[in-house]
Specification:
By secondary structure, this protein is of the alpha+beta class. The protein folds into three domains: 2-172, Nuclear Transport Factor 2, Chain: A; 176-283 and 416-459, Nuclear Transport Factor 2, Chain: A (Roll), CATH 3.10.450; 292-410, Glucose Permease (Domain IIA) (Distorted Sandwich), CATH 2.70.70.10. 22% of the residues lie in helices and 29% in strands. A hairpin with a 5-residue loop joins β13 (332-339) and β14 (345-350). α1 (2-30) packs across α2 and α4 crosses α5 (102-112). It is globular. Bound molecules: zinc ion. Zinc ion binds at residues 307, 313, 315, 317, 396. Residues 311-408 form the M23ase beta-sheet core domain. Residues 62-82 are annotated as: Disordered.
Amino acid sequence: MTNRVTAKIKRSMKAVAVVGLAGIAAFFAARPFVHLVDDTDNLLEGPPPVFMDAEAELSARARPLTTDSELEDRASRPVETQVRVGSGDTLGDVLARAGVEGIEATQAIDALRGVFNPRALKAGQKVKVTFEKSPHGFGHGGFQMVSLNADPIRVVGAQRDDKGGFGPIETMRQVSKQVAHNTGTIKSSLFESAQSAGVPIQIIMAMIKALSYDVDFQRDIQSGDEFTVVYEGFYDTKGKLVRHGEMLFASVNLSGTPIAMYRFDNGQGTVEYFNDKGESVKKALLKTPVDGAKISSGFGMRNHPILGYSKMHKGIDFAVPTGTPIQAAGDGTIEIAGFNGSYGNYVRLRHGSGFGTAYAHMSRIAAGIGPGKRVSQGQIIGFVGSTGRSTGAHLHYEVLKGSDQINPLSVKMPTSIKLAGRDLDRFKAVKRDTDTLMAKIPPSTRLAANALGKSAALSN
Ligand SMILES: [Zn+2]
């Protein structure tokens, strides 16, 4: 993003220097009309930096003047401009900035309300404003249409009608549901390696979340371990992902030990990931009580190795940056929450079956976390820091049995659900279909869901 922005600004400055104001005026006449449905530009892009205002966008696109005939050709087409929504902007502000007059803007916004709530406009979003071609060969004519992406698939807007007013428009982008298959080798972290393999962020997060019950992302994942993920996505006609779907399968091979999971919906409200034996991956305690995406083999503590459990060191450490949220490893009750000597800011939870967990050196304890309160698994209880006797940001994590610390790595948590009877039969069928699907789709490719025959039923 930063590089692109820098490049854009450089281009922008160059363009302004070369063509000056005349070039910017020519820009208005130069933009061809782009049919809405084909425009997938920046759909999945995050909010832009604050300084990327409409002016910068416009001048960045300015091009040197060329021939008269080209100018005439450009002048014969409608003029379209895109404006970024700034923080606190209303749609009225955006239209005013694009040069739409007040009364017309109000009419268009009223019409738009039929298909979209203008208050749902988000900072960073792009709004497309189209004007008629210029009667003079430069600048632009009357305001014709405003449109924006209501969501990745739905384009909404308001367009001038025959009676001189405005009517709502709504277009569904043409997308197809496809199943993608990615594999890769972990270098410094699962997150980075999956990202460079092209796996969408939301799918990576789902994968890390589902693996966090069984995998200690600090100690279990080694450089060279392999991962596989199969997921659904909605792709436009150009093959660009517009919306991610469900993760159907994920596996990691930890130094030769495979951990694999299949998505299964039992039709009675339980949608979870199960191993090949039909056991839910969910356990009473998470093995990694911080966001596994933040853990990489390249990030270590200064003067403090990443320690395993020992007589001297009664817990295990997760080296993650200051401020990383710490999650309750399991459902439970808060026993202690406060400053605790060499532990620094410290929280201890009590879970069922005599187990406890403790979290030390927090930069701060989360709001609302106090003794006697209930927490649920995955709830944020505090943030990683280096308070107490600590030489660098990390989470010191302990598992207790009664009041004694035990080695967290030795704790084997039972599964929360074990499928049986008809559920197990149905799961086995889903597993078989998923395996067939994976065999049909070569790694790093995807196939249309409706081209997968019987297997397509999986994703419905
Ligand atoms: Zn420690």
